[in-house]
Amino acid sequence: MSKNILIIGAGLAGLTLAYRFKKKGHRVMLLDKGENHSSTVAAGMVNPMVFRRMNKSWRVDEFLEEAVSFYRELEGVLGIEFFHPISILRCFSSLQEKKWWIEKSEKKEYEKYLAAIDEEECGLRSLHCEFGIGLVKQAFWINAAVFIKAFQKYFMAKKEFTTGDFKFGLFDSATMCYDDEKYDDVIFCVGHAQGELPYFQPTPIQKTKGQILTIQSEELQTEYSLNRKCYVIPVGNNLYKVGATYEWHNATLNCTSEAQEEIKNKLSCLYQGDYQIIHQEVGIRPTTIDRRPVLGRSYENPHLFIFNGLGTKGYMMAPLLSDEMADFILDNKEPPMEYNLKRFS
Ligand SMILES: Cc1cc2nc3c(=O)[nH]c(=O)nc-3n(C[C@H](O)[C@H](O)[C@H](O)COP(=O)(O)OP(=O)(O)OC[C@H]3O[C@@H](n4cnc5c(N)ncnc54)[C@H](O)[C@@H]3O)c2cc1C
User: In this structure, which residue's CA is closest to atom 53 in ligand 1?
Assistant: First the structure.
């Protein structure tokens, strides 16, 4: 039986989930207050590695496979290009890191992600790489602002998108009516704003502010994403995204000179040539204390759900997690405790 579903929040989480419901033959309505401060600001980088300990990212094999086919499919559906495969040059920050890299490269499960590269071969003599460089394969970046705008327009064109704040007074959770329309289920995908709503309290969602620069450099000339202390992503026309800061428990939306200095200092560990700062942006990531997402059902009302906590790796996780979330709501397939809301109870 086809359901009628209301999704509050049309960032990455809400949009991917709405698309899953539609593909499975259900009716959706997205409600968004038009204050997106995360999905559109994101660098959209999908990196299969966590460099801190030189490990593969959580569930990366599954997440990547689904993400690549999902974004490719959506490029066709939306009629735009936003998916960009890229390789990452990791400039090691110590000999220890290089040692870990060599150990990992010899393991079968890292074969498809790690490779050796010659400094001459990558043509970047101006880089600071005193401990050497490694290459990460299978990465990509999503042009986040272009993707989110086009995805929202897709639902607007089908009259499945309303702009506005979720008004508590318009919702009767006993009858599941919002603004006189009856829904089978309501899902909250409001990112860092979860704490402002009366549901799923106390919220497990924390606010982690992030600032990011766009720089222009004629000298840098690279097709690789560079990484050491910060990331550099070439986005075309000699422009590069450089970021980002991690300002824990900070929900202010102003760009600061301190953040600009921090990113410039980190960049100088990698590259010391000429560049101009074109743009500085700010957003707030919805994070959790254990760095895992949150998929869950309300304890008070079995028709209210939360899909949130995508954190720093939303663009990698959202395609598969939105599918799992849809299966949870439609077929009662409970997500594992590791990323279930119940782990906080
Ligand atoms: C600087 C920065 C860089 C990042 N870089 C990367 C990266 O390189 N790779 C990566 O994978 N991730 C990155 N991220 C993280 C990524 O952006 C998040 O994981 C993802 O965007 C979270 O999506 P979301 O839909 O949960 O939240 P959001 O994008 O915040 O969307 C929530 C939506 O809910 C709406 N809303 C909120 N409250 C209400 C309400 N009461 N009524 C109606 N609507 C409401 C808002 O308007 C908003 O559109 C970055 C984030 C930042 C800030």
Answer: 283
Residue 213's domain is classified under what CATH number? 3.30.9.10
Question: Domain residues for 279?
Answer: 206-287
Question: pLDDT of 147-197, one tens digit each?
Answer: 999 999 999 999 999 999 999 999 999 999 999 999 999 999 999 999 999
Report yes or no: 245 and 43 within 8 Å, Cβ to Cβ. no
When the pLDDT of each residue in the chain is averaged and rounded to a whole number, the result is 95
State how many domains the chain has.
2
Strands 114-116 and 55-56 turn out to be unpaired
Residue 68 belongs to a domain: no
Counting ligand 1 atoms within 8 A of each CB, the residue from 31, 71, 233, 312 with the most, and so the one to mutate, is 312
Q: What CATH number corresponds to the domain at position 336?
A: 3.50.50.60
Q: Is 113 within the bounds of a domain?
A: no
Q: Cβ contacts of residue 158 below 8 Å, gap of 6+?
A: none
